[in-house]
Amino acid sequence: MTQQDVDKATLIEGLNEDLAHEYQAIVMYNTYAAAVSGVHRQELSNFFLTEVADELEHARFLAHKITALGGTPVTSGVEVDYTTNAREMVENVAEAEAETIERYVTRMKQAAAYGDYGLEAKLSDIIADETEHKEEAEMLLRGKWDE
Ligand SMILES: [Fe+2]
Ligand SMILES: [Fe+2]
């Protein structure tokens, strides 16, 4: 990937895709926190709400970065799959976080090719956050679920 491959418009388009998925993550976690039921309700609800704060910070960064680059940030998120099944919620979360990491790895390479090393570094931090989210969800999926 060279700078010729990544112009500003391409980078902004990619960051807007990331932003739409951050808004999706915020809605997903907030909705699941409210809708989760069963014997694990309290801990899962707290887990989901903790993630909302991280995703909001990612969304804040992306929206500002997009405008700083001269772009227009998206104002809505990707649709969320609603479920009332606690295990399905955590499975959806693990899958969404894994896909998010892949998108950010691509974006980080684009940022480097474009020559924005500050963005590259910031995306690396965000990847670390998303990796923690993914691992937490995967750990929740291990072990027994009795519902
Ligand atoms: Fe995020
Ligand atoms: Fe996340």
Describe this protein's structure.
This protein is an all-alpha fold and 147 residues long. The protein has a single domain (8-140), classed as Ferritin, core subunit, four-helix bundle (Ferritin, Up-down Bundle). 75% of the residues lie in helices and 0% in strands. It is built from four helices and no strands. Helix 1 (8-35) packs antiparallel against helix 2 (41-68), helix 2 packs antiparallel against helix 4 (117-141) and helix 3 runs antiparallel to helix 4 (117-141). The longest helix has 29 residues, at 86-114. The termini are far apart. The mean pLDDT is 95. The structure holds fe (ii) ion (2 copies). One fe (ii) ion is lined by residues 22, 25, 55, 58, 130.
Tags for this model:
147 residues, mainly alpha, Ferritin, 4 helices, 0% strand, binds fe (ii) ion
**Mind telling me the C-alpha Rg?**
16 Å
CATH fold category name: Ferritin
> Helicity level, as a percent range?
over 70%
N- and C-termini, Cα separation: 48 Å
Q: In CATH, what is the class?
A: Mainly Alpha
What structural category do the secondary elements indicate? mainly alpha
Q: Which ligands does the model contain, each kind named once?
A: fe (ii) ion
pLDDT < 50 stretches? none
Order of helices and strands: HHHH
How many beta-strand elements?
0
* Largest sheet composition: none
Strand content: under 5%
In CATH, the architecture is Up-down Bundle
What is the subunit arrangement here? single chain
Please give the domain count. Answer: 1
Helix segment tally:
4
What is the H level of CATH, i.e. the homologous superfamily?
A: Ferritin, core subunit, four-helix bundle
The backbone outline, from C-alpha atoms, is elongated
- Mean pLDDT, all residues: 95
